[in-house]
Specification:
It is built from twelve helices and 17 strands. The chain is an alpha/beta fold. The strands form four sheets. A seven-stranded mixed β-sheet has the order 5-4-13-14-15-12-16. It is an enzyme of class 1 (oxidoreductase).
């Protein structure tokens, strides 16, 4: 069985690793030219029931704990006047919660655990068609072609593979503007102290200013705005969006290195699913793109673990394995996608501070 995975993100690499541990080979086609072709973004918190569970099935718990930062789970929520509304402190050194790990470190951990040649770099998938002998023929931007019997789309928000299964398209739900502050402890010790070892959220009226500590000693600054607020191509425009906020907070924007990086935040409609097609399925953002509130990478990795588990349990009938995976994934993702959309809407609402604090402090 020739198996192809489109996309070497966290979901695709987790799938390849767990399949390899179960004696199933797969080729991962990735659009980036190499593992170092671009920045992988900030850090993420891995949840015990999803991301950490997937790493356990991949046999990588020890390596993860060596690279993760339990202290990065700390969360401080402030209002625009700089008043502390909530301060969550994790148990020191504990991995029972949701420790942070840099995306680049996690991706490297997964890449290093795969046999050489598993990932084929510089292959941007542009089209998929039925193969001449069954299965699928993959076409790449450079003109290269490859055939496979089984195809998994782990190719993100603008998935090419998704079109084989559904015509669902992502909706524009917010605008995000990002900056980076390097060597923050030395250059801006006051800002380092303000943010702490983890995450800082400053919630205003339909505005969120966030800062996140990375393992390399930098801060990643992100301003989230409603979808129609997109004129934020420079610091001056961004500072105008937060006019009147406590100067200690807007100093996070002023201290940013270089340019502002604006981007659209998109999400698939909640409840997106498909009838199924033999030989092909989706994981991660390709299947259930959600607003960035902490579930995307975790659910992508859990998708990978569950799909690998079904394929390993019934290698003689991969189509039945895919159907079983999709049934479970749809049932699991439904409430998570709804929760993610609700939390994201709260974070950009006129009453964001009250709504988010109530969400975090309500009995579970």
């Amino acid at each position: 069985m020739r198996m192809a995975i489109a996309g070497a993100g966290l979901g695709g690499l987790t799938l390849a690793r767990i399949l390899h541990r179960n004696g199933i080979d797969a080729v991962v086609y990735e659009r980036e030219a190499s593992r170092a072709a671009r920045s992988q973004g900030g850090s993420l918190d891995l949840h015990p029931e999803s991301g950490q569970l997937a790493l356990a099935e991949a046999g990588l718990t020890g390596r993860f704990r060596s690279a993760a930062r339990p202290e990065g789970e700390e969360l401080r929520i402030l209002d625009p006047a700089g008043r502390t509304l909530l301060h969550h402190r994790p148990q020191p050194g504990s991995f029972s919660g949701r420790p942070e790990i840099d995306r680049s470190a996690l991706r490297d951990l997964l890449l290093d655990a795969l046999p050489h040649g598993t990932v084929v770099w510089g292959h941007r998938l542009v089209a998929v068609a039925p193969g001449p002998d069954g299965g699928f023929r993959l076409e790449f931007a450079d003109g290269h072609r490859a055939d496979c019997d089984l195809l998994v789309g782990a190719d993100g928000a603008r998935s090419t593979v998704r079109s084989l299964l559904t015509d669902a398209e992502p909706d524009y739900v917010a605008t995000l503007a990002e900056l980076n502050i390097s060597d923050v402890d030395r250059r801006y010790p006051d800002l380092a102290e303000l943010v702490g070892p983890g995450n800082l959220w400053c919630l205003g009226v339909s505005r969120l200013l966030a800062a996140q500590r990375s393992g390399d000693g930098s801060l990643r600054i992100a301003a989230s705005l409603p979808a129609d607020d997109h004129h934020i191509g420079n610091k001056r425009a961004l500072l105008d969006m937060f006019h009147g906020w406590e100067p200690r907070l807007t100093a996070l924007i002023e201290a940013g290195d270089g340019r502002v990086w604006p981007r659209r935040i998109e999400a698939l409609p909640t409840g997106t699913r498909w009838a199924g097609r033999p030989g092909v399925t989706l994981i991660g953002d390709a299947a259930h793109l959600m607003p960035p509130v902490g579930e995307g990478a975790n659910q992508a990795m859990l998708d990978a673990a569950e799909l690998a588990r079904e394929l390993a349990a019934d290698p003689a009938d991969p189509h039945a394995a895919i159907r079983a995976y999709e049934r479970g994934m749809f049932a699991r993702i439904g409430p998570i996608a709804e929760m993610s959309a609700r939390v994201h809407a709260m974070m950009l609402s006129p009453t964001a501070a009250e709504d988010i604090v109530r969400f975090f402090t309500a009995p579970r």
